[in-house]
Specification:
single chain, Rossmann fold, 7-stranded parallel sheet, disordered N terminus, Sacchrp_dh_NADP-bd
């Protein structure tokens, strides 16, 4: 006779933010406090976790300024190298937000603890190897325990996922898209400065590219979505996109990887992922949303208004590509990030003024067919173009916290409408609800143009 498992105690907190005193973590705390115990917000209880209690207390004071820190926000010491402390966190909260990177170094113990306990988990990583490894190792366990594990809930890759879905949904039948290119443009009145952890993740990602390829070869191949029309054109390394007035360079990024994973999951689940105990209204909303998403090839390019900007990006890529091959080269890259990134990354991160002055625009230029029957014709070329745009504030410390917290609020308020558990991408989990929430919090989505193309249009 099987003994019934004792029920899990009711969690003390709705959310625990792990790594709250880090560069990005403190901005996540600041964003979370906007929704703590406010009318209609599901966030009623919050705790901050990290290695140093003193730093966490200072983070709370900084995030609450100019108000006094809330008395009901708890501070908990925990360490990613201490599994019992992570298990304790998971047993105390409904949802854990992990802001401790690089994730290839610090992330797996946190995912393992959540998958084992049934605690839900969100993070802001942009590291493809980490995300795919977590899916391979913990998806089945998370489905069993009811732990919903979703990575890439920051600038990597919410604007890209929601932005390309927004573009795909503009192709009203019988029109179909063939390929969409995203052009990411970072803008500022002051200097653009990135988070050192982001730079470190990029360096380590390039250095371990062979491990990612090995992981992919070891996994069963999943069927790819069927996309009408020709294969994705290779195109030039650099280009001038006249319609948006930007020069661009193809960017190896997590965004295309995450979007591809979402589309593969959608192929297996054409109406999206059903929730634990979905309301009829949400079922209708989910099915209507996903039936309007038409898959397309997707690539991402980094864009600049000037040729000098493109040369700077190329220079950083060359430095990382060459020096990552050797341990001493990697040491140099991580020891002197400002030098090798031409000032774009520094260990101290950006100042508050630099954060406030920065913003992004992400243009999505889609090519396709006005009639799906045209796509099946031999030597067919797209005869239609749709350009959409996503705009928002600074990417690492403003857009990322906005995206993460909105995903978290969906988990808290709509848990019954979401999948029981598993390791997924944000788009397939939050797609039907997230765009509206982002728009209410400073990230805009616009249709720029819909144009019929001459026969000489890009294939």
């Amino acid at each position: 006779m099987q003994t019934a498992q004792p029920p899990k105690p009711h969690p003390l907190y709705d959310i625990i933010i792990l790594g709250a005193s880090g560069f990005t973590g403190k901005y996540v705390v600041k964003e979370a406090l906007k929704f703590l115990n406010t009318p209609s917000s599901p966030l009623k209880t919050l705790a901050l976790a990290g290695r140093c209690r003193e730093k966490l207390v200072k983070t709370l004071q900084w995030a609450a300024h100019p108000s006094s820190p809330p008395n009901d926000v708890s501070v908990i010491t925990a360490d990613t190298t201490d599994p019992p402390s992570l298990s304790s966190l998971c047993n105390q909260t409904k949802l854990l937000l992990n802001c401790v990177g690089p994730y290839r170094i610090h992330g797996e113990p946190v995912v393992a603890a959540c998958a084992s306990s049934g605690c839900d988990y969100l993070d802001i990583t942009g590291e493809p190897e980490f995300m795919e490894k977590m899916e391979a190792k913990y998806h089945e366990k998370a489905m069993e325990t009811g732990s919903l594990i979703v990575s890439a809930c920051g600038f990597d890759s919410i604007p890209a996922e929601m932005g390309v879905m927004f573009n795909m949904r503009q192709w009203v039948a019988p029109a179909v898209p063939n390929h969409v290119t995203a052009y990411v443009s970072l803008e500022s009145d002051k200097r653009i400065v990135g988070n050192f952890a982001t730079y470190e993740s990029a360096v380590l990602g390039v250095a371990n590219m062979d491990k990612l390829q090995q992981l992919r070869r070891s996994r069963p191949k999943k069927p790819r979505p069927v996309i009408p029309g020709p294969r994705l054109p290779k195109g030039p390394t650099t280009e001038y996109q006249e319609k948006i007035g930007l020069r661009a360079l193809k960017l190896p990024s997590a965004d295309a990887v995450v979007v591809r994973r979402t589309l593969v999951t959608l192929m297996e689940n054409p109406h999206g992922l059903p929730g634990i105990n979905e309301s009829p209204e949400h079922i209708g909303k989910r099915e209507a949303y996903w039936s309007s998403v038409k898959p397309a090839h997707f690539v991402v390019k980094i864009a600049s208004k000037s040729l000098l900007g493109i040369y700077r990006i190329l220079g950083v890529g060359v430095f990382i590509g060459l020096l990552c091959r050797f341990s001493f080269g990697r040491w140099l890259l991580l020891k002197f990030p400002s030098f090798f990134s031409f000032g774009w990354f520094r260990k101290t991160g950006p100042s508050e003024d630099e954060v406030r002055s920065a913003s992004f625009k992400m243009w999505f230029v889609g090519y396709g067919f006005s009639d799906c029957n045209l796509a099946s014709e031999r030597n067919s070329k797209p005869d239609m173009e749709i350009i959409t745009r996503v705009m928002g504030p600074e990417i690492g410390y403003v857009t990322t916290p906005i995206s993460l917290i909105q995903c978290a609020l969906i988990v808290l308020s709509q848990r019954e409408n979401l999948p029981k558990g598993g390791v997924y991408t944000p788009g397939i989990v939050f797609g039907p609800d997230l765009q509206e929430r982002l728009q209410e919090n400073g990230i805009s989505f616009d249709v720029v143009s819909k144009t019929a193309l001459p026969s000489s249009a890009p294939a």
